[in-house]
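Subject: design request, 407 residues
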């Protein structure tokens, strides 16, 4: 009897973390999203190159395709809020602002697809979007159909102007309507974030069955304190979040800010490394027409992207935090291998010296590990459990290594 009970418990556990079966987000999705960098700038008269418009989206698609980003895996080009006209059309359908998107959304999707990329769009479950444009409440089915007709590939569904008690009905309904269109549309939800804002707790089982990725914390801003608080939230809820992260469904700590203004190159790489450790979606919000070679190199770092895109899709475990130095480890393929990151969240001092045996980082297999530094690409050779790893982690920086178990 006991055995059967155990088997049942395991079956229940597995089914409780079942994902959304639309075939998408088998690894964390990657792409570009307009929000942090371009916000709700609708002033195309005086700021034509920086306003939310088809021109902006097309130029980002051009850069993604031609500057190596698409080849590295960044495939979704996503419009955030403020693309809409202030009113629905006479058939109650959503329509883009006619001056800023003069050719319409189908045209834009066709253009993005012609570059081998996918188009993401934004709506809101409430009566209005955060920017005050028409929301989807009471129009879920029609809006899903409209997006599918336009050729949309991803929907970011926000939670402003709604009662978060309704999210557990509204988001699954939208997910069902998206499914019914027959078009695979990656579903990016702000459902748990809406609950957080209204002081409600979140149940990630249904979220994972409904959404491919989901936000559950405050928006990232272009400042290391923001990155730090997001990482702290993952540390605090590490065991809970790990249970619900995996192929088909991932927690979304929000946009990547490499190439922005507010963080040093060390801070930018610390953010990238932590997002990769968490198996987070990588949606950069920057201006790809104007980006430093350093930031571009970071965004295209093949070892870092391989850790993020690891097929097992595990979320890293926080092993410890001491004097604002954190140690995170993530299982990666081939089995038994690990990515290891030290994150120094101090914003003073000259850095934390590290001198650790490999086994204290979780590298316990006597066959040893082939270890490579992620940011320098330097190979450290094969380390045994008793080998010592020495380095220094600068303030607001990370040190990241990939450790492949020897066959
Ligand atoms: C709709 O859901 C079914 C059942 O989960 C799934 O097999 C199918 O692939 C989904 N279709 C789309 C377009 O998401
Ligand atoms: C949520 O809690 C915070 C802190 O206790 C409070 O300031 C805020 O007003 C609450 N929000 C809602 C929607 O109840
Ligand atoms: C370790 O990995 C590097 C980079 O992938 C590779 O060039 C090297 O041959 C590997 N070393 C061993 C001993 O397997």
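Subject: RE: design request

Done. Sequence follows.
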């Amino acid at each position: 009897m006991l055995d059967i009970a155990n088997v049942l418990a395991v079956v229940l556990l597995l089914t409780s973390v079942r994902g959304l079966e639309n075939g998408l987000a088998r690894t964390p999705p990657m792409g570009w999203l307009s929000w942090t960098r371009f916000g709700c700038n609708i002033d195309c008269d005086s700021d034509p190159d920086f306003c939310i418009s088809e021109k902006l989206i097309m130029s980002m698609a051009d850069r993604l395709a031609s500057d190596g980003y698409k080849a590295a895996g960044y495939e979704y080009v996503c419009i955030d809020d403020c693309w809409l006209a202030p009113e629905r059309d006479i058939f109650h359908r959503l329509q883009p602002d006619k001056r800023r998107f003069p050719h319409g959304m189908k045209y834009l999707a066709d253009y993005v697809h012609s570059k081998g990329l996918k188009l993401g769009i934004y709506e809101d479950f409430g009566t209005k979007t955060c920017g005050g444009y028409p929301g989807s409440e009471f129009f879920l089915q029609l809006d899903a159909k409209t997006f599918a007709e336009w050729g949309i590939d991803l929907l970011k569904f926000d939670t402003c102007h709604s009662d978060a008690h309704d999210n557990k009905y509204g988001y699954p309904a939208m997910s069902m309507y998206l499914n019914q269109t027959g078009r695979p549309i990656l579903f990016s939800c702000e459902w748990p974030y809406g609950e957080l804002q209204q002081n409600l707790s979140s149940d990630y089982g249904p979220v994972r069955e409904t959404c491919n990725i989901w936000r559950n914390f405050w928006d990232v801003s272009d400042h290391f304190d923001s990155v730090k608080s997001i990482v702290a939230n993952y540390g605090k809820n590490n065991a809970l979040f790990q249970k619900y992260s995996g192929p088909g469904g991932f927690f979304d700590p929000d946009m990547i800010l490499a190439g922005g203004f507010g963080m040093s190159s060390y801070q930018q790489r610390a953010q990238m490394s932590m997002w990769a450790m968490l198996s987070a979606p990588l949606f950069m919000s920057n201006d790809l027409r104007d980006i430093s070679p350093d930031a571009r190199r970071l965004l295209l770092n093949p070892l870092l992207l391989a850790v993020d895109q690891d097929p097992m899709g595990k979320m890293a475990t926080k092993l410890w935090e001491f004097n604002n130095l954190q140690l995170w480890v993530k299982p990666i393929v081939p089995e038994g291998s690990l990515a290891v990151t030290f994150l120094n969240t101090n914003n003073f001092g000259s850095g934390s010296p590290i001198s650790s045996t490999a086994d204290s980082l979780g590298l316990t297999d006597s066959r040893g590990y082939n270890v490579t530094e992620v940011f320098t690409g330097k190979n450290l050779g094969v380390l045994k459990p008793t080998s010592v790893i020495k380095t220094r982690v600068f303030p607001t920086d990370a040190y990241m290594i990939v450790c492949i178990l020897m066959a």
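The chain has two domains: 4-308, 317-405.
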